[in-house]
Amino acid sequence: MKCFSMFSKEKSKSKKRESRSAPELRNQSKSDNPLSRTTRSMPSPRSIPEMYKEKEHNLRVFSLEELKDATNGFNRTFKIGEGGFGSVYKGTIRPLNGGGDPIVVAVKRLNTHGLQGHKEWLAEIQFLGVVSHPNLVKLLGYCSVDGERGIQRLLVYEFMPNRSLENHLFNTTSTLPWRTRLEIMLGAAQGLAYLHQGLEVKVIYRDFKSSNVLLDENFRPKLSDFGLAREGPTGDRTHVSTAVVGTYGYAAPEYVETGHLTIQSDIWTFGVVLYEILTGRRTIERNRPTSEQKLLDWVKQFPPDSRRFSMIIDPRVRGNYSLSAAQKVGKLANSCLNKNAKERPTMSQVVESLKQVIQESEEASSSAYKPASTSSTRKSVGRRSNKV
């Protein structure tokens, strides 16, 4: 609260020097914008910045005072997460028209060290200002202040009460059910498929991992953190050349080795998370025996077609899952992890595969828990269904 009072006192002094409307979102030159195309030839799809200009009015521009009020001065007790780009706080804002109930939100306050944070903040605004899908987190607005008290960059999102997939998958005090795991991955796949194929331009997410899959009150997944996202290649280009960034253990090998980024890079990381879903293990766990520290190296010893495959399944779901369905998930993961990027499935194909796995799991579950009946009619129906 002390910070809040100091800010209020100096408001009148710094008002002229501060910028709340982030004019660089509208006036930034293409040469400075990491999302702009470097070459243009024949008529081509609009870029993300071009599409953003049509939709920027949908985002609310917050003042720093509003977001301080919303989070009680960015009080530590309101902090719900922290990452490489900043801290996230739970907050409450008033509707723009002043009426209605307060809205619970998540406020991300970016670290102010270096220019890279600003570029990622800008990228997130532009991507999330354009995309619209049930499995992508919704950005409500932003705050940009350049004043005598320093640079402030904040983002305001819809609040996701069940936090992230990571919080539940690797939580030793609770178990994420098998069916819920599959449904979360299906939703995440649908979100990625939309990014890859549902817009004028292909979008490479580049940072798919369990901590970036947020869960709403019904455990519906939504992808978050678009600071590292990039537009995909256009025309006859096969890739986007860029610095290698992301999280160790998730990045595709061809991207790490060459810096060549494609939508197939997202397919690889999806395969990594599929194995996290199957095993309940993180991609890197230094506290395990050497042979088990790297998830992808360890699971190679247990191919989906082998009798040993069941040994890698998360012990917390054993007895409550379909082995046949799990084997299909393992095979799907392996296809996503194909060293030859061109042979990996598309996200649309992944979506269809997961739908089939979920249906098989449902059928296996209903068959396993179908109550016995003394009715001869029901018995005959049961016999007929078993032949299908």
From TrEMBL:
Gene Ontology molecular-function annotations: ATP binding; protein serine/threonine kinase activity
Start and end residues of each stretch annotated as Disordered: 1-52, 361-388
EC number from the UniProt entry: 2.7.11.1
Domain Protein kinase span(s) in chain numbering: 74-358
Compositional bias per record (Basic and acidic residues), positions renumbered to this chain: 19-29
Residues reported to bind ATP: 108
Catalysed reaction, written as an equation: L-seryl-[protein] + ATP = O-phospho-L-seryl-[protein] + ADP + H(+); L-threonyl-[protein] + ATP = O-phospho-L-threonyl-[protein] + ADP + H(+)
UniProt key word Nucleotide-binding: yes
Compartments (UniProt record): Cell membrane
Swiss-Prot/TrEMBL keywords: ATP-binding, Cell membrane, Kinase, Membrane, Nucleotide-binding, Serine/threonine-protein kinase, Transferase
Database matches in SUPFAM superfamilies: Protein kinase-like (PK-like)
Coiled-coil residue spans: none
Similarity annotation: Belongs to the protein kinase superfamily.
Name used for this protein in its record: non-specific serine/threonine protein kinase
